[in-house]
Amino acid sequence: MSSSHGKDPVKMDPNVGKKIVSVIPKRRQQLLKWNGWGYRDSRFEYENDLLVFTGDRYPIGGSVSLPYFKEYVVKILNVDLTRKNVGVPLPQTYPEPVPCPEFLAKLEQHGIEFTQNGEDRLIRSHGQALHDIHALRTGQIKRIPDTVVFPLSHDQVIQVVQAATENNVVVIPYGGGTSVSGSASCPEEERRSIALLDTSQMNRMLWIDKENLVACFESGIIGQDLEREVRKLGFTMGHEPDSFEFSSLGGWVATRASGMKKNLYGNIEDIVVKVKMVTVKGVLDKSVAVPRISCGPDFNHIILGSEGTLGVVTEVVVKIRPLPETKKYGSLVFPDFGSGVRFLREVAKQRLQPASIRLIDNEQFAFGQALKPAGGVLSSISSALQKAYITGVKGMDMEKIAITTLVFEGTAKDVKLHEQKIFAIAAKHGGFSAGSTNGEKGYILTFVIAYIRDLALEYSVVAESFETSVAWDRCETLCTNVKNRISKVSYLIFLDVSSTIYIEACRVG
Q1: From CA 182, how far away is CA 197, in angstroms rounded?
Q2: pTM for the complete prediction?
Q3: What pLDDT sits at residue 490?
């Protein structure tokens, strides 16, 4: 095999061309929740009059008591923790598959693995939108795939799509299953046989070009698997969406995904060099993979964001970068949300964005504080001193402050200089540093927040997040108006601003 850059891939490297042992097993339900977010051993639970987060995968885990979180959900969300809403158990019976023996015979002829096991079909019948999880918890999933197909390569995907086309079978591509757009759901009125094409077994690094800093992966590779493999070779892709642990490369392409470190590495459309996709009319595959072509249209941008409606993404060439010499977290405190927004605008004007920069409002700050585990005397003293400094020395109101979390990556010299420039701009807007530890905790907390929705549903609280994009001069007004409007129907709103607006809403009571 030769790379499309005219260079041979790194054949001697044992990481290239081999099937990767994924963090996520083929039978996903062995590791992941069937009716909620994330790992089965990681969840918020209320036990012995305390709220805890189970498992040891995250910093707040290990069944450590979260006393402040209990107080928070009772006071702010008006939750009665004695009234738990238990969802329906995993079904024991499932709808019979819509038959299409000709299609199955073709799969067997080509040696392509498939299953019609009811549990495997149900697990892949949805994404992670609120209505998907609510339907699972209440037993209202009305249509599930009839067959789950596990192709091993691009060529096998061609065979699956051809067989489906010849036999009038619907094909739904499925990667990590984290979609919130409904693209993984089966139309309830669909009477044809539905084949769910699971790309998880297509997760190889096909080649890597270290000189030109590009690599080719099969589309089914999960984000954390991809990053682990390139890091072994001294590189990073730098793409970290909130779903990084569970979403796939093909899914990032299909949903035009954005990552938390997009300021440095770009969004997925900036990272992708070339995409190969199987359609009912053939294979869409550019003959070259170069930085830029002046003639158009650019087929990559037709595929990006297509949500699986045009075909199945099978292989993706992406940009990689050498691992940064230094990675440093940071955090800033501002007197209010508006000051934080103006700080972000100035940073953007000067093109000084670090790898990640996110502003959270006071409600989300209070929420994050509530997730702190119970600490000893030193922890209490530290918190008291921090509060005293913010209120006494800086004269800020703890019920108005906003927080910015930062991630810097690069050489030690560049990171230090970058940090100094950012902090200088922050000072002009009334902000000051709150340390690297708080920044790291704030960044990692992003991966835990999704688990709170499952806890909320157990106590009849609806929680969901949505994103939008807005011009800078309307940013603060949009945030204020959204909060005011939704609060009128008894919602609690968290705001998290980067280059887009991230909003999480919890229905209270």
Answers
A1: 16
A2: 0.91
A3: 60
